[in-house]
Specification:
Blueprint lengths: L9 E3 L3 H16 L6 H11 L4 E5 L5 H13 L3 E5 L2 H7 L4 E2 L5 E2 L7
Parallel strand pairs: 1-3, 2-3
Antiparallel strand pairs: 4-5
Helix pairs in contact: 2-3
Length: 112
């Protein structure tokens, strides 16, 4: 199995078990300081060839934004996962504050 054998796929994440697994992957990447958040960081990481996986929110309204990420993921032969809610993606990427009970507050939506 080589990189040339790998084909990019677009996968829509809808099942709760898959969301939990994706959340764990995102948090692990955050701990290892290998998580790119937002369009600019994501595009730079894909262009450098450092990306292993891309995650895009389905609630992004800008079509050119989604087209760019999809095209770059396809060109780089990486999988693109699509989640429904940008706020949920922002929570997973810890773009929020936590209250004293460890509940997320002031969640910033994340497009990719």
């Amino acid at each position: 199995y080589s990189m040339s054998d790998k084909k990019s796929q677009i996968i829509r994440i809808e099942e709760e078990a898959l969301e939990g697994a994706l959340c764990k992957v995102i948090r692990d990447a955050l701990v290892r300081d290998s998580l790119s958040r937002g369009l600019r960081e994501t595009v730079k990481t894909i262009d450098r060839g450092d990306a292993v996986l891309a995650v895009l929110s389905d609630s992004v309204n800008e079509q050119s934004y989604t087209d760019l990420v999809k095209a770059l993921a396809k060109e780089a032969n990486i999988h693109l996962l699509i989640v429904e809610d940008s706020e949920r993606l922002g929570e997973w990427a810890q773009l929020c504050r936590y209250d004293e009970d460890e509940n997320p507050r002031k969640i910033v939506g994340c497009g990719c």
